[in-house]
Design goal:
Strand content: under 5%
Order of helices and strands: HH
Number of helices: 2
Largest sheet: none
Shape: flat
Distance between the termini: 38 Å
């Protein structure tokens, strides 16, 4: 099956699955896993938007 994802969708899914794995393998309790997973996911998205704007302004 072939999926045609945009760059944002691919980055979103990468951030989602990576943050899930990071949360599961690095923390001991479910509460810590959830908080850390959400934190890492937010950091991935913030970095994505930040780098996107940096590339936009760097292209001028």
């Amino acid at each position: 099956m072939y999926w045609n994802l945009s760059h944002f969708q691919a980055t979103f899914f990468f951030a989602l699955f990576t943050s899930i794995v990071f949360g599961v393998v690095t923390k001991k309790t479910d509460r810590e896993r959830l908080h850390y997973g959400l934190y890492v996911f937010g950091c991935f998205l913030a970095a994505t938007f930040g780098l996107g704007w940096l590339m936009y302004f760097g292209h001028w």
